[in-house]
């Protein structure tokens, strides 16, 4: 009786529901297909930095990505001038010392890197 009443009530629902019946514990087993995305996705947006993972790459990881991009750029083009737009924290990381990481990249690849925030 409970199962037939539930099926009757769920027949008006837009989502597809499957009612299995009573379990040995006296619980009604059922599944219901989600139609819309979860509310959390409707009221929030994905982080542009971590892409929703909750993890932000370290400066060293970003530097490795930058170096790979520079390597590809230098191999494909003759132009030896690169304008690099970075976050102010990353700018501090690149120019940490007098001959910082940006200088070492310029020396290693024989390019001029103009860093902007």
Q: How far do the termini sit from each other?
A: 68 Å
Beta content:
15-25%
- Protein structure class: alpha+beta
Helices, by number, come to 5
Q: Could you say which overall geometry the principal axes of the C-alpha atoms support?
A: rod-shaped
Number of domains: 2
Tell me, rounded to a whole number, the average pLDDT. 86
- The largest beta-sheet arranges its strands as 1-2
Q: Runs with pLDDT <50, length 5+?
A: none
Work out the radius of gyration.
28 Å
Largest sheet: 2 strands, antiparallel
Total number of beta strands: 4
| Estimated helix fraction | 40-55%
- Run of helices and strands: HEEHHEHHE
Explain what this protein looks like in three dimensions:
The chain is built from five helices and four strands; from the N terminus they run αββααβααβ. It has two domains: about 40 residues, no CATH class; about 60 residues, no CATH class. The model has no long low-confidence stretch (mean pLDDT about 85). With about 120 residues, it is an alpha+beta fold. Strands 1-2 form a two-stranded antiparallel sheet.
Main attributes?
single chain, 117 residues, alpha+beta, 2 domains, two-stranded antiparallel ribbon, two-stranded parallel ribbon, 5 helices, 41% helix, rod-shaped
Write the layout of secondary structure elements.
Layout: H1 2-10, E1 17-22, E2 28-32, H2 39-43, H3 59-76, E3 81-85, H4 88-94, H5 101-109, E4 112-116
Parallel strand pairs: 3-4
Antiparallel strand pairs: 1-2
